[in-house]
């Protein structure tokens, strides 16, 4: 029973640490990807214009990272891109 508990704890810790992203509002795109270089394959570019760039992570509860003129502006968790953020800016 102890071995099963230990295996469960290690597995949970491994999967939790694999999906942790680090960000700070205002940081540049290059700094963001340097900080999260172990997860670069999990970011998908979903919207790009001269003013906005939006990346999405995979999974059931994806994260959306909004970059406004190469500075991290907002991070949302949800099932789709809330375009209202971009439209209201």
From TrEMBL:
PROSITE patterns found in the cross-reference section: PROKAR_LIPOPROTEIN
Signal peptide (from-to): 1-22
Record's keyword terms, sorted: Signal
Protein's name according to its UniProt entry: Uncharacterized protein
